[in-house]
Amino acid sequence: MMNASIEQLSHIVQTYSLLLFELDEHDAMYKSSPEKWSKKELIGHLFDSAQNNIRRFVVAQYEDRPYIIYDQDTWVQAAGYQHHPLPELIKLWELLNKHMIRVLENIPASMHEREVFTGSIHSIQWLASDYNKHLLHHLHQVLELEPVAYP
Questions:
Q1: Is pLDDT above 90 for 38?
Q2: DSSP state of 52
Q3: What is the enclosing helix (H) or strand (E) of 94?
Q4: Helices 39-59 and 86-105 sit at what angle, rounded to 10 degrees?
Q5: Cβ-proximal residues to 49 (8 Å cutoff; 6+ apart), any chain
Q6: CB-based contact 117:67 (threshold 8 Å)
């Protein structure tokens, strides 16, 4: 299952980074309301999600059931993604996800079922699969593609 998640993430990064680079900077800044994220902020959120999940994958290997959550709205606001150049955000997202692939590839099979508390308890393997679903959900929002359901 972990290999399938790694392969899927690799495919997502290759396919969607090309599509993201086609976005228009001005359009990516549009917010339908003050409470909603722009496309730039959604990409930033995906960057934050990657950072936090990489931490989960690493810490779970040496700590029993680490408690790793984050306040996504605070992270997006604190980083000020709305004011970052769009190509830089996309490149950061791409590089961080390539790094995540390497981290996942380095996790020994004996560690795949190690658990992390993220509001509820999940295995590293489950989190890797869920990360891809979350990623696709938001990428389809950003690129205005057919919606991908995510709980």
A1: yes
A2: H
A3: helix 86-105
A4: 20
A5: 72, 131, 134, 135
A6: yes
Q: What is the DSSP letter of 67?
A: B
CB atoms within 10 A of CB 86: 20
For residue 116, the cross-strand partners are 122
- Domains plus CATH for the chain? 2-142 (1.20.120.450)
What is the C-alpha to C-alpha distance for residues 102 and 137, in angstroms, rounded to an integer? 23
Q: How far is it, in rounded angstroms, from Cα 112 to Cα 109?
A: 5
Residue-wise pLDDT tens digits, 65-124: 999 999 999 999 999 999 999 999 999 999 999 999 999 999 999 999 999 999 999 999
Contacts of 13 (CB under 8 A, 6+ apart): 94, 97, 98, 101
